[in-house]
Design goal:
Helices cover 28% and strands 28% of the residues. By secondary structure, it is of the alpha+beta class. The protein is globular and about 40 Å long. The protein has 4 helices and 6 strands, in the order E-E-H-H-E-E-E-H-E-H.
Length: 163
Amino acid sequence: MDKILHHQTMSKKANADSILIRNSTPEDLDEVFSLLQQLWPNRQLNKELFGKAFLNSFDIEGHIIRLACSGNEVIGLCALSLRNNLYAQGTLANIDELVIDEKYRGKGIGKLMLDDVTSIARDKNCPFLELESAFHREDAHRFYEKEGFEKTGYFLSKKLKQQ
């Protein structure tokens, strides 16, 4: 799980000299916050609550946040949750968030990140890799379908408190 994926000059597609994919650390809080603001532009994130949730994620077994970096710049994030699941009859892998900095989108970095977490899920013998995606994210849906994901159902949510 501590694999570091390093892609060199195959990065023509990624438009960078090299992309390093690594585990996030608590020191990445500001960069992660910035990326997730891009993912949810219509949502006002509370930096204090977000910071607590982010730091808490390092104490949760099976929660992995991977970052794509170009030099010292964090340009992508993929959060993966591994949990026991009866339908999967074992460990289920779920992509919680996947976002690439808007300046780097369409350059193959999302695919690098997806390949990275797919490898982690396979190493953990997960029979499924799943994700949820909002209806309006049609470009993302096309990307995921091109990468072998299938629409299998609806994701339903019930708000329990104001944030």
